[in-house]
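Worked example 2:
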Amino acid sequence: MKEDIGIEIEEYRATDDCPLFSPALENHLVGVLNGSHPNQGNFCSYCFTPMGTDEEICPECDLGSSRVPRVRTVPPEIVEAMRQQRSIESRWVNGFAYLGVLISVVGGIIFVLATPIFDENLILATIAYGLILLVGSRVLAGLLGGIYGDRIGYERGRRSTREHWESYISKNPPSHSIDF
């Protein structure tokens, strides 16, 4: 059971002009991409956030169903944008995590070879190298992949999503006016 420790975590929201992806839409599309959800339901036709049948106003973009009609499926272009964003993010995070492991491996070898105490004691050198690998690879992979890879991957993935969104809007202009 999770204990409330009084820390409020604010969810990151993109500040660009692209309305994709609300947390609800992202969860739905992950299910669609995994094959556990059908690509059907009630969606806002502007931001494609899933809406309940009794909801009149989209919880994400605050547009009412009288101004923005609902759609029954999320367009394939939007599903592809999500798949590509996730793929880009994954490559950057994994790339930086593997860089952390590589740094740990090479750094451990350099440390063991450069330390005179390990010249005569192979067991001690093996233990030290094992600890460096165990701790160093976990810490460096987490830090590099989780901080730098995540940040860079999100920005690159989001850029790709914005390009998909602009392409989608240019091919499918809204049949309704949207004034914010």
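The CA atoms of residues 11 and 20 lie 15 Å apart. The chain has two domains: 1-74, 75-173.
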